[in-house]
Design a protein that fits this description.
Layout: H1 2-10, H2 15-25, H3 27-43, H4 62-73, E1 76-85, H5 92-106, E2 111-116, E3 131-139, H6 144-155, E4 163-167, H7 169-203, H8 206-233, H9 240-268, H10 273-300, H11 308-339, H12 355-365, H13 367-382, E5 390-391, H14 403-414, E6 423-428, H15 431-440, E7 448-456, E8 463-470, H16 477-488, E9 495-498, H17 500-534, H18 538-563, H19 568-571, E10 579-580, H20 583-611, H21 616-646, H22 651-683, H23 692-701
Helix pairs in contact: 2-3, 2-10, 2-11, 3-8, 3-11, 7-8, 7-9, 7-21, 8-9, 8-11, 9-10, 9-11, 9-21, 10-11, 10-17, 10-20, 12-21, 12-22, 13-18, 13-22, 16-17, 17-18, 17-20, 18-20, 18-22, 20-21, 20-22, 21-22
């Protein structure tokens, strides 16, 4: 009877507590399952890079539809462009070598057409006469082997002293894929050892420090599997892969860190391994579950947009979050069952007085000045974003050492007639109708500097293109105005206005029309989740406003670094003068979710203390004292992860890495340690206010574990036993 009574006193109620008990009891099966996930992720998920595609335009937009019409009329796979440089194009030896190579390439399987400057009437000759181009179009059914054969023949054009550089959209896509994969691998290799070192310093032992790393590796395996699955049913943009990987890596480390820290804390209170796992699952596990929900809600807002890249990021991101939460709630408790006895327990509980509690008391004494200073600083940090502008990058997403970028820059500087027009009008009509439209409508528009060519697409397809040149920046305001004017006057024809400028106009229209709906969805979901966790309507609103402030600081830093070029030399990139179109939207979704991540970490501890009877000021002091160290450590680890990925060479990955590193650093320090205590001090009891109907609703739907943690006294602790047996379950918790 005593054993049964002891078990009833000890047992913690709640679904997460039950999950923790089950994972502890069946830890071998849990470990085997995650080992299979990791193995499958390495063997199968790694192939996700092979099936990735380049970024596509705004889904369903006019520019995207026009591109589709052209691809249907001329279903070519893509093109390669070779620059033969270093000898006059008029040199007979150069001409002979180039023409021989062009003839050989035209006869290769998979080649749709091959043209050199001699067969094009000199149009592919550089303005200085010392270089020429060879343009090759590949058929839609071309294979990698056929593409390699063409590239190899181009690179071996023997034209005396001339040298050959091969680029084009197919080479660009291949180099982006390979470099993205290399950057992802580099980020993992660099960040995991660094995070392990930091966790050893945090926990003071290798056993505790290793668990978050193991959990993160398993989560990445699961994330690769999930993305591989999505790549079979939807286009998965190449840039999505490192973004999702870095998110999964960072969240997995953060969640496992929180779980292990609470486990050590419970062990320090005298709990056995099984008791500590159970109590940790009921408390820290609840925090992890809420955190995962808030991050998933933030990413779900991307589903509102029609652009394939946003939907791919949303699908991959949400699945990665689910996997990270699952690993934290199942794998980590199972691992604690194996190595829990080797994890150092603190010799005494976390003191109620310390560095963080002193900070809170000082902030509470000067709450208004601290709050105003923090808000002013965050607003100033975010101000540069107000002057930001966006652009669609091409080969400049790669470093200058890559051949596709070298070719693109050479064409732009020395072959002005071959630079893609900023605006292209696709006309469903014959060449005569398209030419008449170009002469009577297009050429007369203000801002149009000329019409380069009117070209039929394919053979007898009834589709033609009109290439339109504009004054000023090809993606500037004048180009956007031309796009709008062309769409307002179609000359009685069925036309589609495409090109980089048109894609930018369509993208901005999508952000303007769908962005508010996405923001509303994220805000509403976050408010509901935080209300269900806290039972308050005040704290969710405050959390939302503070997250917007920290997000602004991140976007401001993004603008200063990548648009204006601050620290570009240190970070190893060449500024493009603008931000990649979709990066700020992704930064908003990811940074908002991560900011809420730390908000949940802190609020859950404050709520736990408030429920134990502490008044609001004291709950904030104790909450930050007991969680401040782990929040700061988690923030440092996340910054290391993001900085490791930002050290890669892909510009888009750099932009995401730097922006998220700044967001996490600001949020884990300035916001959580100063702004949150200041605002909670000002609001006092009002922090926990909710109208009576909502209080009643919270009692019904509130997502709270019914955690009544009994004191661990000698009466409730099992009898002492040998250290080797301490990892077994106490009587009644589970049977073997």
């Amino acid at each position: 009877m005593r054993n049964a009574r002891t078990t009833a006193e000890h047992k913690v109620s709640g679904r997460l507590a039950a999950l923790g008990r089950a994972c502890f009891r069946h830890r071998r099966w849990v470990l085997a399952f995650w080992a299979l996930v990791l193995a499958a992720g390495v063997l199968i998920g790694g192939r996700v890079f092979e099936g990735s595609v380049a970024a596509t335009g705004s889904g369903g937009s006019e520019s995207a539809r026009g591109t589709s019409v052209v691809e249907t009329a001329d279903p070519a796979l893509g093109s390669l462009t070779a620059v033969v440089d270093g000898a006059p194009a008029s040199d007979p030896a150069v001409q002979q070598a180039v023409q021989a190579a062009t003839a050989d390439i035209a006869a290769l399987p998979g080649v749709s057409s091959a043209v050199d400057t001699y067969s094009a009437g000199g149009q592919l000759t550089a303005s200085d006469g010392n270089a020429s181009l060879v343009s090759v179009k590949m058929a839609d059914a071309s294979t990698t082997a056929q593409l390699t054969a063409v590239t190899d023949r181009l690179e071996h054009i023997d034209a005396g002293g001339a040298h050959v550089t091969v680029g084009g959209d197919l080479v660009l896509q291949d180099e982006v894929k390979k470099q993205t994969e290399a950057d992802t691998r580099f980020g993992e290799i660099v960040t995991l050892p660094l995070t392990l070192i930091v966790m050893v310093l945090v926990f003071g032992g290798l056993a505790a420090a290793g668990l978050p790393g193991i959990g993160a590796i398993a989560s990445v395996g699961g994330a690769l599997l999930a993305m591989f699955g999505f790549s079979r049913i939807m286009d998965m943009d190449t840039s999505v892969l490192p973004i999702a990987t870095v998110l999964g890596l960072g969240l997995s480390i953060d969640y496992a860190l929180l779980i292990v820290n609470r486990f050590r804390e419970e062990r320090g209170h005298g709990a056995t391994i099984a008791q500590a796992v159970e109590r940790t699952a009921a408390t820290a596990g609840r925090t992890v579950a809420f955190s995962g929900l808030t991050v998933a809600v933030a990413l779900s807002g991307l589903f509102v947009f029609t652009s394939p890249v946003f939907r791919a990021v949303a699908a991959a991101g949400v699945s990665v979050v689910v996997i990270a939460v699952a690993a934290a709630l199942t794998l980590v408790p199972a691992l604690l069952g194996f190595v829990g006895k080797r994890i150092k327990a603190p010799t005494s509980p976390v003191p109620d007085e310390g560095f963080f509690s002193r900070i809170v008391r000082r902030v509470q004494k000067r709450a208004v000045p601290v709050m105003l200073a923090c808000i002013a600083l965050l607003l100033a940090a975010g101000a540069p974003f107000l002057g930001s502008h966006f652009k669609n990058s091409g080969a400049d997403v790669l470093p200058k050492s890559f051949s596709s970028r070298q070719v693109a820059e050479t064409v732009e500087q020395r072959f002005p007639g071959q630079v893609p027009a900023p605006v292209t009008v696709v006309v469903e009509g014959d060449t005569a109708a398209a030419q008449n439209y170009a002469d009577t409508v297009v050429s007369k528009l203000p801002g149009v500097s000329g019409v380069r060519t009117v070209t039929p697409v394919g053979a007898d397809t009834g589709v033609s293109t009109v290439e339109v040149l504009v004054q000023g920046d090809p993606q500037g305001d004048q180009a956007k105005t031309v796009v709008k004017e062309l769409r307002a006057d179609r000359g009685g024809l069925k036309t589609y206005v495409t090109g980089d400028a048109a894609s930018l106009v369509d993208f901005q229209h999508e952000i303007t029309t769908r962005g508010p709906w996405a923001l509303g969805l994220v805000a509403a979901g976050t408010l509901v989740l935080l209300f269900m966790m806290t039972g308050s309507v005040v704290m969710p609103i405050k959390a939302l406003l503070m997250n917007v402030l920290s997000l602004g600081a991140s976007l401001g830093a993004l603008t200063l670094v990548f648009q204006h070029g601050y620290f570009s030399g240190l970070l190893g990139f060449t500024p493009t003068g603008g931000l990649e179109t979709y990066i700020p939207v992704l930064v908003f979704a990811f940074a908002f979710g991560l900011s809420m991540d730390y908000e949940v970490f802190l609020l859950s501890r404050i709520k736990e203390l408030h429920d134990q009877g502490y008044d609001s000021p004291r709950a904030v002091q104790l909450g930050l004292q007991r969680s401040g160290r782990i929040i700061t450590s988690a923030g440092l680890l996340m910054v290391i992860v993001f900085a490791g990925f930002a050290a890669g060479q892909m510009l888009m990955v750099k932009q995401m890495g730097i922006a998220l590193a700044v967001a996490v650093a600001v949020d884990a320090t300035l916001v959580r340690c100063l702004l949150v205590p200041a605002t909670m001090s000002l609001f006092g009891k009002l922090n926990w206010w909710a109208p009576a109907p909502l209080r009643r609703l919270h009692r019904i739907i509130g997502l709270s574990e019914h955690v009544t943690l009994p004191p661990l006294t000698p009466a409730t602790l099992p009898a002492p036993r040998a250290a080797v047996e301490d990892e077994r379950e106490p009587a009644g918790v589970g049977t073997r």
